[in-house]
Amino acid sequence: MKIYCNKSELYRALNNAIQAVPSRSTSKILEGVLIETKEDEMIITGTDTFMVVESKLSAKCDGIADFVAPAALFANIIGKLPSEDVMMEYDSVKKVLSIQSGRYRSEVICFDSTEFPKVQMKEPQKSITLNKESVRKLIRKTAFSASADEINGILTGVLCEIGDGNFRMVAVDAFRMAIYNEPLEDSIDAFKVVIPAKQLNKMSKIISDDGDETIRMELVDEKAVFFFDGTKVTLNTMNGRYIDYKRIIKVDSTTEVRIQKDELIRSIDRASILTQKENNNMIKFDIQDDLLEISALDNQGNMNEKIEIIQKGEDLKIGFNSRYMMEILRSIDDEEVVLYMRDNVSPCIFRPLQGERYLYLALPIRIN
Amino acid sequence: MKIYCNKSELYRALNNAIQAVPSRSTSKILEGVLIETKEDEMIITGTDTFMVVESKLSAKCDGIADFVAPAALFANIIGKLPSEDVMMEYDSVKKVLSIQSGRYRSEVICFDSTEFPKVQMKEPQKSITLNKESVRKLIRKTAFSASADEINGILTGVLCEIGDGNFRMVAVDAFRMAIYNEPLEDSIDAFKVVIPAKQLNKMSKIISDDGDETIRMELVDEKAVFFFDGTKVTLNTMNGRYIDYKRIIKVDSTTEVRIQKDELIRSIDRASILTQKENNNMIKFDIQDDLLEISALDNQGNMNEKIEIIQKGEDLKIGFNSRYMMEILRSIDDEEVVLYMRDNVSPCIFRPLQGERYLYLALPIRIN
Predict the structure, then answer these.
(1) What is the pLDDT of residue B211?
(2) B interface residues, A as partner, C-beta within 8 Å
(3) Do A83 and A57 have their domain in common?
(4) Whole-angstrom Cα distance, residue A67 to residue A275?
(5) What is the CATH number of the domain that holds A55?
């Protein structure tokens, strides 16, 4: 059984599938990718059982075969082949895959496909078409705020919500929240689903800049399935009730600060040099007279710096974790941002100058 | 005591000095850099006691002071300052250094300079002027071959030898050797000195592309002192007799292989995917009919690839450590290289097509 294909296409498909492959597993078969051949295409599948990535490429195959190749080794070999033309041959008796390219020959020991976990899917209950770039943007701007600790259950997931003409993602952990809205072109029936942030992040890595402009999303059997660029990504959804995020964001602010985002980022970066992890990376804001003074202090020294702002309302002294502040500010594209605060224990809310595209929230750290 | 200087110049000098500063030391003072001010310059010194780097920069100082600032923190702050203008002030009573730049203010806790190790040097016994780029090239092309294991004593050093119109560096460990010659413009009295490879590598990192064209080298008190770009680097030399390298390189070759270097590098790179550390990263060369077949084998699979060569003499099967091969080939600039071999236990020698600028030697691995 021979397969002829293009090296770059094979490498791209392999690297997509590998996103779902655990680097270490108790089962050798999960460290592999499933290769399935049809007459004129090849499908490469990787999974850690939570996430399945199936990536297709054009190939001339003179037969049907399926086998599991060791993922990391296979990708490493393909990435370094001397020529764009690749000829592969699978020997199902010896379970050996031969790879030829130019004057290079290699044999790789493979596994039977029988033990590889394959998902049988029913018909989708819901199917929607989204802008591919929007999906990538939504993930990048929210998923970092989900809890990284499995103990927090559903908060390790991102709420994906369709309604009011928006596709919205929401992520919350104990200290901050991210909400981002992308307007939908077509009206779609409202729905909600929670998807693990870790898997969404992995998927966003394989959403390429070129290829399709849209992404199809299907909901089926408690799974969310995404189709784009010849790739199918199946993610588990999470059960349980997501937090009522709208209740959290109702803060009657008494201090509003309009600020140049990049200037604030650079200043917090300088402040972070003199903060200590044991002290929650604390930086202090002192807001008065249209100036925001940032200060930090640890046992090696201290710093302070003043930034011009447009201040509305009362003066305020408030402390934050510099890392959380930076993650929020770096995910904002606008040049300016408005911070809404009340006192040094109430959350600080980040919003754009106009509109409601995003909302970030950071809990302050109590200043001693 | 106030110091005015330029941020970029200060940052460059600091980063030079930091090359010699241990990232962790039992003594806090060694994790710092010594700052000395004169009327119109500032000298920054870092040392791990084996190596001393003193870097100068222009500065307007209204007094003389010396103190020790924590190196990593100080460099981190300077690198991120908002403006090119830096004003510093040292308070010798509080032992605090204030740093100002734009609207940024910082205070850093410093140490007394009294405990900082300062070397008093005698008059140099020898002083020579070398091409700066040549010195950097010599280090890059040889020092990697020195032994990394302190147990090997003088073999952790690089022999620097002046004679026959060349500045030569030689590095040897148990498995390979590197010799590189740079022609000297002026005739200089012959001498030999052995300098630790680790320190030479650190020094080569601070030899900049611009600045001076030459480097002055002085020998004094069993130290080698290098002057370039306003920086002075003092390195300990090593006592003891260096190996008689000329004796090793006398191999009567019976097989000569002329090869495209980059093609060989790419092929060994592909072979390395299927070699194992426990097996000394072994790759095999099979030389016959003007072809070099490279092969490798581990428990995941195997590979082989043929490269066209110009062969003189007998056919040969010989094994090598792929890592050592790569390090040697990557330090060669020529497009083609000639390998001289005798049998599968005698060393393989790498030489240019013409001339004697370099000689590398690799011991084969016995093929089972």
Answers:
(1) 83
(2) 70, 73, 76-77, 80-82, 96, 102-109, 266-267, 269-270, 273-274, 299-307
(3) yes
(4) 53
(5) 3.10.150.10
Residues A183, B200: Cα–Cα separation, whole Å: 59
pLDDT tens, position by position, B138-181: 999 999 999 999 999 999 999 999 988 999 999 999 899 999 99
In a domain, A143, yes or no: yes
Q: Taking CB atoms and an 8 Å limit, are B82 and A270 in contact across chains?
A: yes
Are residues A287 and A303 both part of a single domain?
yes
| pLDDT-based confidence at residue A126 (cuts at 50, 70, 90) | confident
Q: What is the mean pLDDT of residues A12-24?
A: 95
Residue A335 and residue A298 share a domain = yes
> Mean pLDDT lowest for which of A165-179, B3-17, B119-133?
B119-133
Q: What are phi and psi of A251, to 5 degrees?
A: -120, 125
- Asked whether residue A232 is assigned to any structural domain, the reply reads yes
Q: Which of B86, B103, B108, B266 to mutate to test the interface with A (most CBs of A within 10 A)?
A: B103
B304 interaction partners in chain A (CB closer than 8 Å): 104-106
DSSP 8-class letter at B149: -
Assembly ipTM: 0.89
- pLDDT tens for residues A197-213? 999 999 999 998 888 89
**Structural domains counted in chain A:** 3
Nearest-CB residue to A269 (from B80, B270, B300): B80
Beta carbons of A77 and B305 less than 8 Å apart: no
Residue type, A186: D
Q: Is residue B314 part of a domain?
A: yes
Enclosing domain of residue B183: 126-245
Same domain, B167 and B258: no
Same domain assignment for residues B224 and B313: no
Q: Are residues A210 and A287 in the same domain?
A: no
CA dist B102 and B85 (Å) reads: 7
* Residue A9: closest CA among A48, A32, A40, A51: A40
B73–A273 CB contact, under 8 Å? yes
**Residue B117 is assigned to a structural domain of this protein:** no
B-chain residue closest to A308, CA distance? B103
Instruction: Decide which of B61, B81, B112 is a domain's last residue.
Output: B112
CA A331 to chain CA centroid, Å, is 12
B185 and B288 inside one domain: no
Residue type at B36?
A: E
Which chain A residue has its CA at the smallest distance from B292's CA? A103
The answer on pLDDT for A163 being more than 80 is: yes
Which residues from A are below 8 Å from B302, CB to CB? 106-107
B289, B291, B296, B302: CA torsion to nearest 10 = -80
Cross-strand bridge partners of residue A340: A256, A349
pLDDT digits over B12-71, tens only? Answer: 999 999 999 998 888 889 999 999 999 899 999 999 999 999 999 999 999 888 999 999
Do the Cβ atoms of B105 and A73 come within 8 Å? no
**Cβ–Cβ < 8 Å for B244, B161:** no
- In a mutational test of the A interface, the residue from B305, B307, B322 whose CB has the highest number of chain A CBs within 10 Å is B305
Nearest Cα to Cα of residue B231 among B3, B96, B51? B51
Q: What is the dihedral of CA A264, A270, A274, A278, to 10 degrees?
A: 50
CA nearest to A110 within chain B: B300
Count of CB pairs separated by less than 8 Å, A with B: 88
- CA–CA dist B307, B319 (Å, integer): 16
**pLDDT tens-digit map of B92-121:** 999 999 999 999 999 999 999 998 998 777
